[in-house]
Amino acid sequence: MSVGSYKADIPSAEVWRLLAEDPEALLIDVRSQAEWTFVGVPDLSSIGKEALLLEWQRFPGMARNTGFVTELRRAVGARGAGEETALYFLCRSGGRSAAAAAAMTAAGYRNCFNVADGFEGRLDATRHRGVVEGWKATGLPWVQS
Q1: Three-state SS for 79?
Q2: For the whole model, what pTM was predicted?
């Protein structure tokens, strides 16, 4: 299921399973420092992993991180991964992560996936996130500082 220029959109519960099954697969959280601090981050410790945290847009102001591809290439390489490694991109609700997955695909990485429902998912009827869908609503492990 190819979407645009990256491999596929995959729901968070499926991403959790794939991360657990593939020792080389990486989760890249592209939200902002403020989101990691105040909303929380995925906790992959039970599967012996840690998410890579790299802003797609810099907070405050949310300007695009022009060094994203270079910085992520370096971070992925530092973990012994390469262009064939499965990379799963996560943001709040799937938009920034799709753009990041497309950028890394354009940079030569062949297995880039978007976590379609994100960390908090879409808004519910009362305009709250983290209830309808997403990493948190699915009950996947996460921590908050």
Answers
A1: coil
A2: 0.93
Largest CA-CA distance found in the chain, in angstroms, rounded: 44
Indicate whether 88 belongs to any domain.
yes
Measured between alpha carbons, how far apart are the two ends of the chain, in Å?
36
The pLDDT of residue 1 is 42
The answer as to whether 3 is a domain residue is no
Q: What pLDDT sits at residue 29?
A: 98
Label residue 143 exposed, middle or buried (CB < 10 Å: 0-12, 13-18, 19+).
Answer: exposed
- The residue type at 127: R
Which strand (E) or helix (H) includes residue 72? helix 68-78
Domain harbouring 29, CATH code: 3.40.250.10
- Give the number of C-alpha atoms closer than 13 A to the C-alpha of residue 11, restricted to the C-beta side: 11
- Joined together, the tokens standing for residue 85 give 């490694």
Task: Give residue 32's domain range.
Answer: 8-140
